[in-house]
Design a protein that fits this description.
8-stranded mixed sheet, 423 residues, 14% strand, alpha/beta, 14 helices, globular
């Protein structure tokens, strides 16, 4: 394994679905993710690495660049980070639109959950008072935006709202308020990994095995502390991975290209697959890694791109390295599958969404010959980049966990989305 250190709303009514969760202890129950930075064993060397023995020291990633696999901008195809339009050109720039207000309120409703996690951060002295300071300052910013949507920069969009929250947390002294729960959830998910993989391996039909792996990604993706509602449910009751898999909303999903993907899957493997990963815990360990292992088994090279910096319960580059070191055996295999073609990359990102005009140079270099890009999770694959066009095949895969996203899509809450585009 190589380590790289680097809106227009729909009239369709929103339907909620509550039976998707299992709120109790269970043989397959667990929680969330982790964050940090590291060097690790390098099997394949790149000219962009300075190597000493088998340890790779990666070059500085301070300079971010445009992702080279984005379709070239033209008059008719300009990359827009945000999938959900916040305003029309004709809207008064000094007055917030209904869509802007709905997203401001969404972030506002999340403040108590963030404050609670900040208060319990034992790595920060006087955490309780600093958590209160965070809550006050971020609430003030959101109130300012309600009065003047341009008061903290233009455009007012989802990345800006997230970035302001991260900046306030760091300003008052917090680096990773979800660290403890990420460590706990990773440990729980690791204990379940072998059973989940064995169940997948036991499915002989290739198409059915793929569908089971995709359902596992959806089930893992629900473990998201960025959603105030899910954070409350998770804190109170926990969730069961197996039961969530069984209780996913029935197909067809709001965007459902699974059958088309099955056809392509049956014909041949991709040479190199890049996956922008999302949450820690069940998401990365029980959802993405079994899928990545299947790709490796089919002969693909796989690149997992994780955040540079902590944000909510998203897995970071250094945490992902640590997780994989716990899952691999002494020979570097994932339950019998070699990881010699598995690469871990630092995306250069520090938010739960991603702007693909700002990725690390290392990721951009290693992705030059990728022929499938996967954007996993609601933040990276729906709220941003749902309409992004690439020079290669692409998949957006996520669960709809915000009512505002469901309204935009015209979907049910907790609906699933898998968008496959073949070039």
């Amino acid at each position: 394994m190589m380590i790289l250190k680097p809106f227009i709303t729909s009239p369709t009514p929103i339907q909620t679905h509550t039976s998707i969760f299992s709120f109790h202890s269970h043989a397959l129950s667990f929680t969330l993710p982790t964050t940090f930075r590291a060097n690790s064993l390098s099997i394949n060397q790149s000219p962009h690495f300075k190597t000493q023995g088998n340890i790779s020291e990666v070059m500085d990633i301070s300079q971010l660049v445009r992702f080279s696999l984005l379709m070239d901008d033209t008059d008719t195809n300009n990359y827009k980070v945000c999938s959900i339009p916040m305003r029309l050109p004709s809207d008064d720039p000094t007055v917030p639109t209904p869509t802007e207000l709905s997203w401001i309120n969404l972030l506002y409703c999340g403040i108590p959950s963030f404050k609670k996690h900040a208060e319990s951060d034992t790595s920060v002295p006087d955490a309780a008072s600093k958590a209160e300071l965070f809550a006050q300052r971020y609430a003030k910013i959101l109130e300012d935006l309600k009065k003047d949507p341009a008061s903290y920069g233009v455009p007012l969009d989802i990345p800006l709202l997230c970035r302001l929250r991260e900046e306030v947390l760091k300003e008052v002294g917090f680096r990773d308020i979800f660290k403890k729960i990420k460590v706990e959830e990773n440990a729980k998910a690791i204990s379940l990994f072998e059973n989940v993989v064995r169940l997948n391996d036991a499915i002989e039909d290739e198409g059915k095995r793929l569908e089971n792996l995709i359902r596992g990604i959806f089930a893992g993706n629900i473990f998201d502390l960025g959603s105030a509602e899910l954070a409350e449910v998770f804190s109170r009751d926990g969730m069961s991975f197996s039961t969530t898999c069984e209780n996913l909303l029935p197909r067809p999903w709001i965007i459902d290209d699974l059958d088309a993907l099955k056809v392509r899957w049956s014909k041949k493997s991709w040479k190199k697959v890049l996956i922008f990963v999302d949450n820690s815990g069940a998401d990365i360990i029980l959802g993405i890694l079994p899928f990545a292992r299947e790709l490796l088994r089919r002969g693909s090279q796989v690149v997992l791109a994780a955040n540079d910096l902590p944000s909510i319960n998203d897995v970071t580059y250094s945490e992902l390295i640590e997780v994989l070191s716990m899952l691999k055996d002494e020979e570097g295999n994932l339950l019998g599958v070699s990881t010699s073609n598995l690469l871990i990359a630092n995306s250069g990102n520090g938010l739960p969404v991603i702007d693909l005009t700002k990725v690390s140079q290392e990721l951009n270099c290693i992705a030059s010959d990728v022929d499938l890009v996967i954007l996993e999770g609601m933040g990276r694959g729906i709220e941003t980049n749902l309409h992004a066009q690439f020079k290669c095949d692409s998949i957006n895969i996520a669960m709809v966990k915000h009512p505002e996203v469901a309204e935009y899509l015209g979907s049910r809450l907790y609906d699933c989305l898998i968008k496959y585009k073949e070039v």
